[in-house]
Write a sequence for this structure.
C-alpha cells in the first residue's frame, strides 16, 4: 500500500505533519502570483526543484535546499537564482512525502534530515540525520526512526518511526521536530537521542533558537483552525512547559528570526474537514511577523504551499512545494 493511501485511510487521531504540509495534490497547479505586504516586494527567484521542502543559508551566503525526489541538496545563488548540485546520494523519497526534508550547517559541515523512508512507510532506508561527506555520499549520524520505534510517544500514532519535519543546530547537537509523534528530540553530534519535550495533538513543525529559548511553529490538528496555528516558546535546556508567543493563523510550518524580530510562515488556509494528506488551499500562504501583542502582521501573501523560510538581512527566501524559491525583499519595511 502506498503511503499516500495509508494517510488517507488511517483512523488514528493524531494528525501527521504530512497533513497539508508535504503532500501537494496533483489537481492543484501553481496559480496566481505572490502578493506583498506594505513595502515588501515578492518575486520568484528560481523554479524546478524536485520535492523541495527545507532550506537554510549556508556559510557562503547561498540558499541550500533539499530535493527529496532526487535525494540531493541544491545550492541556489540568492542573487541570480542559479542552481548547482551540492550533494547527492541521500535516501530518496518513498512515496509522496518527506525523504530528504531539511538541511543545516554546523560551521562548514552540512547535515541532512531524512524522514519517512523506513519499513513502516514501505521503504528500506533509515530515517535520521546524515552528515554530508562529499558531493555524492553522506554518513548516518543518528537513526531517528529506530529510536522512535523503540521509544514510542504517549500520543496516538500509526507510523512507528514518526515523521521528522525540521531540525536546528544547537551547542553539541541538534533539535528535531516530529509532527506525527508530537515532540521535539535532542540529538548529540555522536548520535545520542533523547526526548526534549512532548505535546498533545499539536503537530510541531519548524523551529529556531535564540538566547537559550526554542521557538516552535505548530500547525495544529485537522481541520487546522487558525486558533490552533501557534508559535510557542520553551527553554532549550530542561524545558518544563511551553508558553504561547502568538496565535491566529492556520497551518504554521516554520518560524525564524529575521530583521527586527520573529517571523512565521503559514502554508495557507485549511480546506476544512479533510483527510490527512490534503494540502492547504493554493496561493493562500503568508509570511507573517510576530507582533508584541501576540498576533501576526502580514508581510507577504499569495504564496503557493510554502514550507520553510530563511533570511539574509532584509530579504526572506521561501521554499515551496511547487519547487520554487520565492524572494521577499524589504521585509523590515512592513
Amino acid at each position: 500500500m502506498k503511503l499516500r493511501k495509508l494517510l488517507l485511510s488511517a483512523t488514528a487521531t493524531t494528525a501527521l505533519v504530512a497533513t497539508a504540509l508535504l503532500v501537494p495534490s496533483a489537481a492543484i497547479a501553481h496559480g496566481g502570483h505572490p502578493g506583498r505586504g506594505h513595502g515588501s516586494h515578492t518575486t520568484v527567484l528560481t523554479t524546478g526543484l524536485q520535492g523541495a521542502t527545507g532550506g537554510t543559508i549556508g556559510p557562503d551566503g547561498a540558499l541550500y535546499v533539499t530535493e527529496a525526489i532526487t535525494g540531493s541538496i541544491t545550492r541556489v545563488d540568492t542573487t541570480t537564482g542559479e542552481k548547482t548540485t551540492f550533494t547527492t546520494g541521500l535516501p530518496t523519497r518513498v512515496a509522496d512525502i518527506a525523504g530528504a526534508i531539511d538541511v543545516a550547517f554546523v560551521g562548514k559541515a552540512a547535515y541532512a534530515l531524512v524522514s519517512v523512508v523506513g519499513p513502516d512507510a514501505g521503504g528500506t532506508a533509515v530515517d535520521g540525520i546524515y552528515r554530508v561527506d562529499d558531493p555524492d555520499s553522506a554518513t548516518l549520524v543518528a537513526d531517528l526512526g529506530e529510536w522512535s520505534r523503540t521509544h514510542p510517544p504517549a500520543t496516538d500514532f500509526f507510523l512507528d518511526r514518526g515523521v521528522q519535519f525540521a531540525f536546528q543546530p544547537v551547542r553539541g547537537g541538534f533539535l528535531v521536530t516530529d509532527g506525527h509523534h508530537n515532540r521535539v528530540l535532542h540529538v548529540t553530534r555522536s548520535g545520542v537521542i533523547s526526548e526534549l519535550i512532548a505535546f498533545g495533538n499539536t503537530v510541531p513543525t519548524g523551529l529556531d533558537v535564540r538566547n537559550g529559548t526554542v521557538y516552535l511553529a505548530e500547525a495544529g490538528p485537522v481541520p487546522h483552525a487558525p486558533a490552533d496555528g501557534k508559535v510557542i516558546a520553551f527553554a532549550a535546556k530542561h524545558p518544563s512547559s511551553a508558553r504561547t508567543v502568538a496565535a491566529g493563523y492556520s497551518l504554521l510550518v516554520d518560524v525564524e528570526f529575521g530583521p527586527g524580530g520573529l517571523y512565521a510562515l503559514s502554508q495557507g488556509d485549511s480546506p476544512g474537514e479533510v483527510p490527512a494528506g490534503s494540502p492547504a488551499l493554493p496561493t493562500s500562504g503568508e509570511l507573517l511577523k510576530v507582533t508584541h501583542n501576540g498576533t501576526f502582521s502580514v508581510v507577504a501573501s499569495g504564496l503557493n504551499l510554502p514550507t520553510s523560510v530563511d533570511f539574509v538581512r532584509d530579504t526572506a527566501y521561501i521554499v515551496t512545494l511547487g519547487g520554487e524559491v520565492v524572494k521577499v525583499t524589504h521585509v523590515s519595511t512592513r
Remarks:
- Helices lie at 3-9, 144-150.
- Residues 14-333 form a domain with the Neuraminidase fold (CATH 2.120.10.30).
